[in-house]
Amino acid sequence: MARVLPALAERGIDVRLAARHVVEPRAFGIRAATIAWAKDDAPSDARAARIVAETIADWRPDAVMTSNVHDAAVLQAARTARRLIVRVHDHRLFCPQGNRQFPHFPTLCTKPMSAGTCVANALLRGCGPGLSARTVQLVRARETLRKIVVQADHVVVSSRFMAGLCGINGVAAERIRTLPPPFSGEPVTVAAPRPERDRILFAGRLVRDKGLASLIRAIARIAPERRPQLAAAGAATEESSDVPALAARLGVELTMLGKLASSELNAAIDASTLVAVPSLWPEPFGLMGIEAQARGRPVVAYDVGGISEWMGDAGILVPREDEPALAAAMETVSDSARWPAYSAAALRQARAYAARDHVDALIRLFTTPARAKGAIS
Questions:
Q1: Which CATH number fits domain 199-353: 3.40.50.2000, 3.40.1210.10, 3.20.20.150, 3.40.50.300?
Q2: How many CA atoms lie less than 13 Å away from 322 in the CB half-sphere?
Q3: 134: which of 29, 171, 179, 343 is 20 to 30 A away, CA to CA?
Q4: pLDDT digits (tens, 9 = 90+) for 118-168
Q5: 275 - beta bridge partners?
Q6: What is the pTM of this model?
């Protein structure tokens, strides 16, 4: 939002924003209003839906684009617009668990959402709240959302991986638009010099799904005389409280950077040899990867979700949770003879994710003739 909305306004698009909570009346430099629709999995808010419908009727926008709106009544109201575009960021629309991971099993879910599949997984694999009335309620709520989403004029996703997820869940292929997100700012033309001592950067939510603990264990496999430093950027969470102790126990030099502003994150990327994306869940895209590429930094990552779509020659992918392979990848990419080629590939590939191209594609969606609205059964 922070990257795209101001760019749309600069192109002459009259953009207005509604969100569950707006801190400033001109968020991102555009007009913004609070409409407190329901949180995820809470009952729909009829008042919020009425406000959305009235706003559309009064303003008559060419398109309404939703992002992370899981209130069925509000989405239904948004369908009254000339065009409804639904941005599917992650797995919550099609997974009551929310991350397509089985809580107590090493594999990932690859099945479409259905009452039979999800209830069985709640019983056999501990998904969601387990086998309970709450699980059935969650599945039914997501089914209601899906019925609305499949009728949107366009469903926008960040990767072919997410396009496939939408497809198996009933979204027609002609309605799906794969539109990778842009990185922040502009790519550098010359990457910062490789640091004298190897330093790995992890940046993301400090939760199990993002794999910081797995990365620490992988680094610990590198011989002490070659072992890189590790810097971790992200706001502390309850799940991250034992990470420093794990690093200390395994002999990994860890610096917790906390939550960083955009400029601070860029400085942290520039100070690294490479960026690691050790995600355990199926990443819808993996934005940190292209942020690294835009600074000329290679990436090593687990091959999950949409990560393979942007990796190219700018790093190395290894199988999910294969910590020996991740350790070997870090050593290969960090090698002083190989690193310049990986860095050059990163800068070259970053050009595909410029904000200008993203905005151009959005504007084309806003002006594409709308499809006939189907009835919701």
A1: 3.40.50.2000
A2: 15
A3: 171
A4: 888 888 888 877 777 888 888 888 899 999 999 999 999 999 999 999 999
A5: 201, 299
A6: 0.91
